[in-house]
Amino acid sequence: MTLWVDKYRPNSLLKLDYHKSQATQLKNLVQQGDFPHLLFYGPSGAGKKTRIMALLRELYGSGVERLRMEHMNFTTPSNKKIEVMTVASNYHIEVNPSDAGIYDRIVVMELIKNAAATHQLDSSGQRDFKVILLTEVDRLSKDAQHALRRTMEKYVATCRLILCANSTSQVIPAIRSRCLSIRVSAPTKPEITSILFNICRKEGLQLPEDLADRIADKCDRNLRRAILMCEACKVKQYPFTSNQPIVEPDWLTFIQDTARSILSEQSPKKLLEVRAKLYEMLVHGIPTDLIFKFLLRDLAKSCDMTIKTEVTELAAKYEHQVHKGSKDIFHLEAFVARFMSVYLKFMEESVRGMI
Amino acid sequence: MSKDIRSFFNASPKAATSKLSSKTNGIANTKKKKRAVIESDSDEEATPTVVKKPKQNEVKKKTETTSKYFPASAKDVFGSAPVKRVSRSPVKKKAKTDELKIEEHDDSDFEAALLQLDVTEQWCYNQLMKTSSSHKNGESSKTASPEKSKESPSKPKESPSKPKESPSKSIVRKDERKKESPSKTDSPKRESSRIRNKSECSTKESPIKKESPPKKRGSLKKEVISEDEEEDDRKVSPAKRNSLTKKETLKESPMKKLEVPKVSSESKVRSKLQAFAKTGSKSVSEPEAKRVKVEEEKQSSIKKETLLFSSETPSSQSSGYESSGSISSSTQPSSSNPSTVPTPVPINDQLWVEKYKPQSVKHIVGQQGPKSCVAKLMNWLQNWHKNQFGGRKLVRPSPWAKDDDGAYFKAALLSGRPGVGKTTTAHLVCKELGFDMVEFNASDTRSKRLLHEEVTELLSSKSLNPYFSGGKAVTSKHCLVMDEVDGMAGNEDRGGMQELIQLIKTSKVPIICMCNDRSHPKMRSLLNYCFDLSFSRPRIEQLRGAMMSICFKEKLKLPKDVLDNIITNCEQDIRLILNHLSMLAANNLTDIEAIKKHTKLGPWDVLRKVFSAADHKTMSIYDKSDLFFHDYSIAPLFVQENYLSVVPNLPDSAKKSKRMALFADAAESISYGDLTDKILRSTNSWSLLPTQAMFASVIPGTVLEGYIGNKINFPAWLGKNSRRNKLDRFLQEIHQHTRLRVSGSKQAINLDYLVSLRDLILQPLIRNGTEGVPQALAALQNYDLVKEDLESLLELSQWPDKKDPMSLIESKTKAALTRAYNKTGPACPYAIPSVKKGSKRGPSDETDELGIEDGDAEGDDPDDEEDDNLDDGMIVVKKTANKGGASSSKGASTSKGASTSRGAPKAGARGGGRGGKRGKK
């Protein structure tokens, strides 16, 4: 019992379905024997991690797939114990330093020192360096990133860093310049549909073309989401029909619902209800930028062109403030309140114009 | 008096000229004698002849040089009148050479003596005040006698420059008076002191010289100078004021030197002082009485003066005060002499709080009537011995009993806000019932040991009783008063509360405890043993009456509404009200706002004020921002939570969009407030707090001025935030557990995987019921999830108005799943911390069943598992002696088949973790 998305994940560079030229380049890179630090970046569901694992396999052989999980303990200068879980093989270690929250700097420093301080024991090992895989680098604090850049240079003899991020905008230039950046862009819709067909064929299922296209449309070019949606559709109804409903994530429908209720009435009382919904999303850990994005999308749909720009600007402003502030709900609510005000004003004016 | 002075003025020139002839001789004489005195530094060598001569000389000299002083009266009044002008030159010489040194040694000792003296002085004064019934008339005797008996506290009021001088001067005087015989040794000292006084009086005069008429001046000076100088003052003629000021300028250099001889005699004085300090009032009253006799003749004239003085304006007093202060600093380089430091001037002789303390139980404000706490306490205390030793079986009253007389309790607990009169009540009740009080308050250390030692000895007189009083219950009526029991805290009073309770249990005497807050957790245990008397604040009307009568007595006129305002602002705290009233009386303050009791408002009250248009009328922007500072950490949250329920002051005709715009403005401001908050806290720039106050509270409050429509809610943010953190933790756990299988980040799991994963596990159960259990288990294991993860998965993927998929599953199936899960045990490639958070999951059927199943599993197969454990060489488990070890091996053995490539040791560790947990059950 495994989800398709995990079951049919390609495990070698040659088996990758798209960005094949990039895959061959990576293969060449590895075969040269040495490579610089790498920074993989691209949107979620584009296949960064898959590519990295395939690369590692190319590098060390199937030994990298024998993984173990370890808890590593670190002690902060203030004597606070932090525990971070790592996934490691004999050749590499993977860690998500942002698990440690504000103490990620300690994790980065200590972990890399530990891992990099020793050479590979196995002299017959293919490489004389280990790989440290850091995920979600864009969520590292600035302190940690600065700590990272020195260690990157210092231990270059014994280890290579592979960094994985969604966007390089949050990665400091110092680190970007020390790495070979590899952009993994999201798959195109035809690529997604072809992958879906492949999977269904392997599963022995008949996937109608329309449905595949619709899934590709809905998945926001996120391959992971596409495959999960496809499987969800199969669970809901099989054999597929081309017009069967596609299950959307609950949080997305919830945001749409919220947008509807904002548009239905603009009053402080309604704002209170909206606040409850916003809280619900935040509690579930839906990132605020997604909330803003989808709210704006739905709200702007029913806005006249004249206020569309204003609303978009508002959304941008408050989304920015969310990042600068600490309590997301304040800014989300302020956006909704301002939108209600703008919208109501526009409606009243247009009604007056009609009379 | 004024007449007297004039007559003196008229007489002065004549007298001066008559004595002029003998002047030169006198100077020579005094020089010689003075030197002898200073060098020998002993009383014995003093001869009476010297005393007289200087006096004469002095007078002559004075008349010659300044022609200010009238010769006759000084001698008459004081017997040994010191040399003034003349004596200056000989002393000057002396001082230059060697006397300065002496001053330096003696200083410290002298200071100590002075300090001691001050204490006795104060005491003496109190005694004196009590005895002297006629305050005003006694003034004259005071002006004369105080120097002797050192009434510094009373003096300062009348003569501002005196406090500076009084200790040293008075010491000298007393010394003299005790000896009674005008001795030679005294003379230099007296001279110096007198000269100082003179200088003071002259300086004092200078600022007010122009406007004060001669008689007033005389009176003023008289107080300043003390009795010796009285005659001098009278001699001062208006015409000679200029010369006086000249003298003032002259005096500075001689002053330094002149003080020295005084000091030389200090060593002698010191011993006497100490004796004096010991004897206390006796020594004071003696010379006092004599003094009064001596002065009696003068009094009639002096009286008039004092009356004049009493009408003196404060401005002249203060000016005199200042000038004397400046002189003291200039003339006395060695500032270590305490006599120069002016003592603070008390506004009144007694605090109103003390003055108007209720004298009997009946006078306690707001405590009349048979149901009042006072009456209950009296009743309880009166019947205490009867109740406790009456042989009657006492039943613990129900806590809700209305008319309980507290007979059961051995102690009473008086509780109430500060200033309602708890302590006063206890004192008065004890006094009226004739109980001896032993009081311990927060200023005493009340640790366990101390209480035990001191109090038990003091109070449990019962044990020794039979020997002494032949079986009487208690010889004298004691009562232990433990004041401020809620202040029993910290290391000092460690165990004090327990000891107090023990004491109450075994006590043979009544105990009265007092505290402010009876609902405080610390009081809870004590409350079980105490007769609970809770004092409520007296009503405004009750207080108003009492306060009005006090105001009347003090001749303080306050309008009724002002008084009410004070009372409400003080929150009916009688002590505070009295203090404020006396402050008002002293300062003629009319600014009632200034005395507002600064109480901390709760966030609810703050919020109501923030948005209340009515309150805003009287508030400045500072007042508004002050609201924020009542609790700046929670205020922004409260504002944010409740601003939407505000009804702003807008005409009904206002457009909806306008209304909405107000809310949008408020929300924007709140959002900026949060930005400020972030910067403030992340960079520790606390100076931004006022900015935050503006954004987070003042602007929303002003924009949405109106009133709050609904009830004020507690900020939901706190709860939501903690729930958010909890769910985030769950998510992180799931992410970590599924890490081997799932490539996505935590967020990807949250957004995409969750539902699929949940459905993967639950769908077989929903569709196939019990048949689907193996499939579900396989899914769990495939993703390395433990049972807890499934529950967090459910919680995370649950959105409001979505159906809980768990509800689709029959409970039979759930039970089957749990059973199967427990049988196979979790097999994970990671170690699970053995200490799991207690009840981190919400209540669900599974957890219960899990517990049951655990029991079964343990009962079934401990023996088999032992064997498995031996077989499995890979497993490194800490073998525990208890059952935990057994069950741990079980977990490990099953995990073997499930995962081969994933390290078995981890599985073992996991099993060990579970085993440990189970062992605890």
How would you describe this structure to a colleague?
Chain A contains 14 helices and seven strands. By secondary structure, chain A is of the alpha/beta class. In chain A, helix 2 runs parallel beside helix 3 and helix 12 runs antiparallel to helix 13. Chain B starts with a helix and ends with a helix. The C terminus of chain B is likely disordered. Chain B is extended and about 90 Å long. The chains are: A alpha/beta (355), B mainly alpha (921). Chains A and B meet through helix 3, strand 2, helix 9, helix 10 and helix 11 of A and helix 32, helix 34, helix 35 and helix 36 of B.
Question: In a few lines, what is going on in this structure?
Answer:
Chain A: Its main location: nucleus. The complex is a heterodimer of chains A (355) and B (921). By secondary structure, chain A is of the alpha/beta class.
Helix content of chain B: 55-70%
Instruction: Give the ordered list of helices and strands of chain A.
Output: HHEHEEEHEHEHEHHHHHHHH
How far apart are the first and last residues' alpha carbons of chain A, in Å? 64 Å
Largest sheet of chain A: 7 strands, mixed
Beta-strand residue percentage of chain B: under 5%
> Which structural class do the helices and strands of chain A define?
alpha/beta
**Which structural class fits the helix and strand makeup of chain B?**
mainly alpha
Query: What multimeric state do the chains show?
Result: heterodimer
Query: Helix content range of the residues of chain A, please?
Result: 40-55%
| Order of strands, widest sheet of chain B | 2-3-4-1-5
- Adjacency order of strands in the biggest sheet of chain A: 2-3-4-5-6-1-7
Q: What global shape of chain A is seen?
A: globular
Q: How far apart are the first and last residues' alpha carbons of chain B, in Å?
A: 100 Å
Query: Number of helical segments of chain B?
Result: 42
Rg from alpha-carbon coordinates of chain A? 24 Å
- β content of chain A, as a range? 5-15%
| SS field, number of helical segments of chain A | 14
Q: Determine Rg of chain B (CA atoms, Å).
A: 44 Å
Mean pLDDT across the residues of chain A is: 88
GO cellular component, one term (chain A): DNA replication factor C complex
Subcellular location (chain A): Nucleus
InterPro entries (chain A): AAA+_ATPase, DNA_pol3_clamp-load_cplx_C, DNA_Rep/Repair_Clamp_Loader, P-loop_NTPase
Keywords (chain A): DNA replication, Nucleus
